[in-house]
């Protein structure tokens, strides 16, 4: 062995096992690749992840998403069958009696505010959109009770437009994965968008939500059972 080869042999930097670039977590040049790998692994774990709100079409999804504020999707699904049977379209919803809406929505809490939102949504869709749910964020957020998160749910799941929905699970996992340090949902959305290609946005968020419910919980996350712990998750703040 030549002296040059001996120096290479003795130099830890020449050993691939000691090369920081071989560790995906220590390679600052490929955060997008690691974020894609996370989504690929979650797609394997949760192949059926999707919108948990039971709906048929954009109108029902819009209404159900507005109702999901401050409650669970599962609870929303218990009241929407009666709601949509009685008020199947924007015209029927706009003509509803507030007290009847409040009675249906009472199990969700905040029924007075939510009934007001639904009445306003029905009227807004009739007055500005001929009873059709718009497929633009700008128009959706003009409707009562509709913010960016709700608009993104509708755009991504009803219209097939790439959209990132930042709920409590998505925000928490994005921070633990080191994708963002922000707590503001819009900043979190932008940080995720900088890492994921658009085709991952909608379903990728569903997968993050599933993982947040199953393992990466707010308290006592089950890192020992998590497939991401083996090289993909730095466990920031855990």
TrEMBL record:
HhH-GPD domain mapped to chain residues: 67-214
Keyword DNA repair assigned: yes
Alphabetic keyword roster: 4Fe-4S, DNA damage, DNA repair, DNA-binding, Endonuclease, Glycosidase, Hydrolase, Iron, Iron-sulfur, Lyase, Metal-binding, Nuclease
Binding note for cofactor: Binds 1 [4Fe-4S] cluster.
Catalyzed reactions per annotation: 2'-deoxyribonucleotide-(2'-deoxyribose 5'-phosphate)-2'-deoxyribonucleotide-DNA = a 3'-end 2'-deoxyribonucleotide-(2,3-dehydro-2,3-deoxyribose 5'-phosphate)-DNA + a 5'-end 5'-phospho-2'-deoxyribonucleoside-DNA + H(+)
Biased composition (Basic and acidic residues): 1-12
Protein name as it appears in the record: Endonuclease III
Species annotation: Actinomyces slackii
């Amino acid at each position: 062995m030549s002296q040059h080869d001996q120096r290479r042999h003795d130099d830890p930097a020449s050993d691939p096992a000691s090369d920081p670039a071989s560790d995906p977590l220590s390679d600052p040049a490929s955060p997008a690749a690691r974020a894609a790998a996370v989504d690929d692994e979650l797609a394997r774990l949760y192949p059926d992840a999707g919108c948990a709100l039971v709906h048929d079409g954009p109108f029902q999804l819009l209404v159900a998403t507005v109702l999901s504020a401050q409650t669970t999707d599962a609870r929303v699904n218990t009241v929407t069958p009666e709601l949509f049977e009685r008020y199947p379209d924007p015209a029927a919803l706009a003509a509803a009696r507030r007290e009847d809406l409040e009675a249906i929505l009472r199990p969700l809490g905040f029924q007075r505010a939510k009934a007001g939102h639904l009445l306003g949504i029905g009227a807004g869709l009739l007055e500005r959109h001929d009873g059709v749910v718009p497929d633009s964020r700008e128009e959706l957020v003009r409707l009562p009770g509709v913010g960016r998160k709700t608009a993104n749910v509708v755009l991504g799941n009803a219209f097939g437009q790439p959209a990132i929905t930042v709920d409590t699970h998505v925000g928490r996992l994005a921070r633990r994965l080191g994708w963002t340090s922000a707590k503001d949902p819009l900043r979190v959305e932008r940080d995720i968008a900088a890492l994921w290609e658009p085709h991952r946005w909608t379903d990728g968020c569903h997968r993050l939500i599933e993982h947040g419910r199953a393992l990466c919980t707010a308290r006592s996350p089950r890192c020992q059972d998590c497939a991401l712990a083996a090289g993909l998750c730095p466990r920031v703040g855990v």
